[in-house]
Amino acid sequence: MASELDxxxxxAKRAAREIVGGMVVNLGIGIPSLVPNHLPxxxxxxxxxxxxxxxxxxxxxxxxxxxxxxxAGGYPVTIVPGASYCDSVTAFGxxxxxxxxxxxxxxxxxxxxxxxxxxxxxxxxxxxxxGAMDLASKAKKLIVLMSHxxxxxxxxxxxxxxxxxxxxxxxDMIITDKAVFEIKNCELVxxxxxxxxxxxxxxxQTACRFSVSEDLKVIEV
Amino acid sequence: MASELDxxxxxAKRAAREIVGGMVVNLGIGIPSLVPNHLPxxxxxxxxxxxxxxxxxxxxxxxxxxxxxxxAGGYPVTIVPGASYCDSVTAFGxxxxxxxxxxxxxxxxxxxxxxxxxxxxxxxxxxxxxGAMDLASKAKKLIVLMSHxxxxxxxxxxxxxxxxxxxxxxxDMIITDKAVFEIKNCELVxxxxxxxxxxxxxxxQTACRFSVSEDLKVIEV
Amino acid sequence: xxxxENPFGKIATLEQALAFFKExxxxxxxxxxxxxxxxxxIEGILAKEIKNLTLIGNDTGFPxxxxxKLVSQGRAKKVIASHIGSNPIAGKLMNQGVLEVEFSPQGTxxxxxxxxxxxxxxxxxxxxxxxTSVTKGKQQMELNGRSYLVETALTAEVSIxxxxxxxxxxxxxxDKSARNTNPLVAMAGDFTIAEVKEIVPLGGLDPEEIVTPxxxxxMVILSNGVNWKWVWEEN
Amino acid sequence: xxxxENPFGKIATLEQALAFFKExxxxxxxxxxxxxxxxxxIEGILAKEIKNLTLIGNDTGFPxxxxxKLVSQGRAKKVIASHIGSNPIAGKLMNQGVLEVEFSPQGTxxxxxxxxxxxxxxxxxxxxxxxTSVTKGKQQMELNGRSYLVETALTAEVSIxxxxxxxxxxxxxxDKSARNTNPLVAMAGDFTIAEVKEIVPLGGLDPEEIVTPxxxxxMVILSNGVNWKWVWEEN
Lengths: 221, 221, 235, 235
Fold this sequence. Notes:
The complex is a heterotetramer, with two copies of chain A and two copies of chain C.
Chain A: H1 4-16, E1 24-27, E2 46-49, E3 53-57, E4 78-85, H2 88-96, E5 102-105, E6 109-111, E7 116-117, H3 132-138, E8 141-145, E9 157-158, E10 173-175, E11 179-184, E12 187-194, H4 199-204, E13 211-219
Chain C: H1 14-18, E1 26-29, H2 39-47, E2 53-56, H3 68-72, E3 76-81, H4 88-95, E4 100-103, H5 106-117, E5 122-125, H6 132-135, E6 140-143, E7 146-152, E8 156-166, E9 172-173, H7 182-188, E10 189-199, E11 219-222, H8 231-234
Parallel strand pairs in C: 1-2, 1-8, 2-3, 3-4, 8-10, 10-11
Antiparallel strand pairs in C: 5-7, 6-7, 8-9
Helix pairs in contact in C: 5-7
């Protein structure tokens, strides 16, 4: 059986296929941060950070970190040729103006119609929304990378989110550790699934109806 | 009798006395542009231009002009040490935020209460307001430099302006070719007059009542 | 001359740029009194005889300088600007009723352009609130007991700007006061074309000094430079 | 070391800067996750034991990094920020009811700060319009058939920022991503204090690369540098 890291990398690899050269991409923390490892070196992508970097490169080697060159999570990064620094208001202007081609975020729940709930667990975690609402509502394409179920095995893809929403009808694609869904015109469609599972098991672990693509594919693990 | 240029320079010289070191000053076209000639070299002033210069210096010598270094009127300038370039939105943010200490403008009319009319002559000239409204309403101190009467001898200081207003109750000081007025709490006060005229003649050439300062001064010409 | 790579496909010719312009289009332009306006793009639009344009920018330049050329040759049906004072032909066309002019206070105009570029709907300001020529037809609202005017965002189908240098990603730096409205106009275009004095290789611009990040620029063309005489050169 | 002239009287000591702070004050701070926050000013406010502050900025840093120090030691009565996730003590104080927190979406928050700095009353955005936790208590309005939220401008009695270099006029340049919210916060303060790594003579900064014009900066102090360990250094 694939290790936890293997599965996370599989998910990241699948997400990387949605990125083509010239795109501007914003990555959330967690699994999305693994996506760049799966891009061909020839694919020129500009990674965007909310604090004010356009054109982030990989993490610096140990000892080469610069406290003044960090991503939005506060961790050291590098830059690529063609990168630029700006203030945060311009960084968010890029988002609001619709200039971010792909945003890849983690999530707690996603609804059948593409509602996103990833910012708050009332009574437990009230961290504030940060840039999640801006990104979710304004990125041209929003991809959610998350485990198919929570730690207790409860489905995270639901008819309606039970947690407070980040933004409504914003998710275009969900990539879980089991399957890949697209959301088109507020309809959830199963596009692909990993060879470690099956459509019937996915159905059992998904708390809403979905249609199955005529072109359904299996991703060999 | 003093020449036209002499009088203009007298007015500019009087306006220059309102400027102290460290101030940010915006000058309109015409007589206001003569003000810098009357500042002591030791007085460090930052001259502001709406197009995006803070720290303009004198005009360049002939042949030294730079087409990309012009004031808001489109004429070549230079910069002083400590100057910076910015975009026009920041240049106007400086104005709107109240960071301009003194704005010196020409005008067509000023009312007793400090209303300014300097942007339009209906049926004749409809040039648009440019930055006049922003400056008039937001500069900390607004000084008007203008001839006391128009070419036909009609007073330009009035009970109410007859021309459309630029902004209301914004003028703090009027310097004409005859006199210096301050407007305090919507009241016009004669502070000084040039030795070429008299209070009674000023009264005759001013179309509204004004009070005379207890500290009235004569400026020897 | 160094051969510049074009990995983002943004570097193009004037002809390719001109293919984007058509009648009835809304075009936003950078520049302030003609300084910092893109000469070759303006000349090209003029030569293509594109009419009925709606032009948005600080001012209408001078009759033969900057965007003034298009205005004084009757190519615009509407102008949104802060003043037309330096171009008497614009005033004449307005008085004849063949050119519609919408005036905004200069600071408000550039904030409206910036708001469009930043994806905002409007800004609230009190400049012009005491002036019916500004307030006419606009919504007002109260905020903490003070009144404000709602000044709506401006965008355009195409924005044209002038910059000193670009790299192949479209990152721009400007020269002195030729910066003026260009960074704002660059952001507000649905499609933005930058005419630039020099194109440098990727990595050739200091990431600290880039004023307009290339994300806002869709096309870059090399300029032949200003083809007009400045007002101060004529004297 | 060059003796720097102080013709504008803006260069001061930390002690002189700290004289401006008092209880119940509204303080806006630059920085993003602590990166680009002014360490000596924060340490000084802490040492002066100034309480009941209202703090406005992107986030509450980490418990011992950036503004987080003031928050986690209970010196704030209210915070206006986009998130407090990286500082668990902030969340604990909020849940205990001793710290009031007003959240804005991050892009909206920085626009509100910029609006304050630019003398605007508010901006209109549709971000968060579908979210009652954002819309609660705010005015909405229709514009060309679309709905928008009215997001009011933010200013502060004192703003504190961190920059790489300043000149005696207070012109500032920043270093890489430590720029973040600093240029916005610098404009929004009624009185703005910049803590900087280096002070250069007047004319020592390229006028093209100045990010914050000195007009927005009232006081400049020299920094001793960051006095905390970054999160990534602790691992």
